[in-house]
Design a protein that fits this description.
This protein has 160 residues and is α+β, with helices and mostly antiparallel strands. The chain has one domain: Bifunctional nuclease domain, CATH 3.10.690. The chain is built from 5 helices and 8 strands. Strands 6-5-4-7-1-2-3-8 form an 8-stranded mixed β-sheet. Helix 1 packs parallel to helix 3 and helix 2 crosses helix 3. The chain is globular.
């Protein structure tokens, strides 16, 4: 699994639907997930720390979890099927772990409110992420330069 963070929200030019964009910590891979308008609002409110007069749904979830002394350990986006992403919210309560099925947008909105990490499985990364070509090419060039200058004696002190 790869830990990711919310990079931002955008509007898809073709569908006019909101897209939440996740990125890995090095910002080399980007994972766009199309979401609904209300879910985008919920994520934006958390990202911008906007105060609302009454608890919204995800704020309510946070309050319920706090009242029960439950903790969101992490969220995991674990599958994509027919262009639909699947997520789970991993809760800790009384030393037990629970996995709650969730839409990724709801899981992200909750994670942002409780400061829980967001993970994406390798199969979703491989299937749905977009690479930052510039960063990838720069790293590959640096690695090639490293290989050009390496000698067998550089490994003389290496012990397995």
């Amino acid at each position: 699994m790869i830990e990711m963070k919310v990079n931002g929200l955008a509007i898809d030019n073709e569908s006019k639907l909101p897209v939440v964009i996740l990125t890995d910590m090095e910002e080399k891979r980007f994972l766009p997930i199309w979401i609904g308008i209300y879910e985008a609002d919920a994520i934006l409110i958390a990202l911008e720390h906007i105060k609302v007069p009454r608890p919204m749904t995800h704020d309510l979830i946070k309050l319920i979890l706090e009242t029960l002394n439950a903790e969101v350990d992490r969220i995991v986006i674990y599958k994509i099927e027919n262009n639909t992403f699947f997520a789970k919210i991993h809760l800790l309560l009384n030393e037990k772990e629970f996995e709650i099925d969730s839409r990724p947008s709801d899981a992200i909105a909750v994670a942002l409110r409780v400061d829980a990490p967001i993970f994406v499985t390798e199969n979703v990364i491989l299937e749905a992420t977009i690479m930052d070509k510039d960063k990838y090419e720069k790293e590959m060039q640096e690695f090639k330069e490293f290989l050009k200058n390496i000698k067998p004696s550089d490994f003389a002190n290496y012990k397995d």
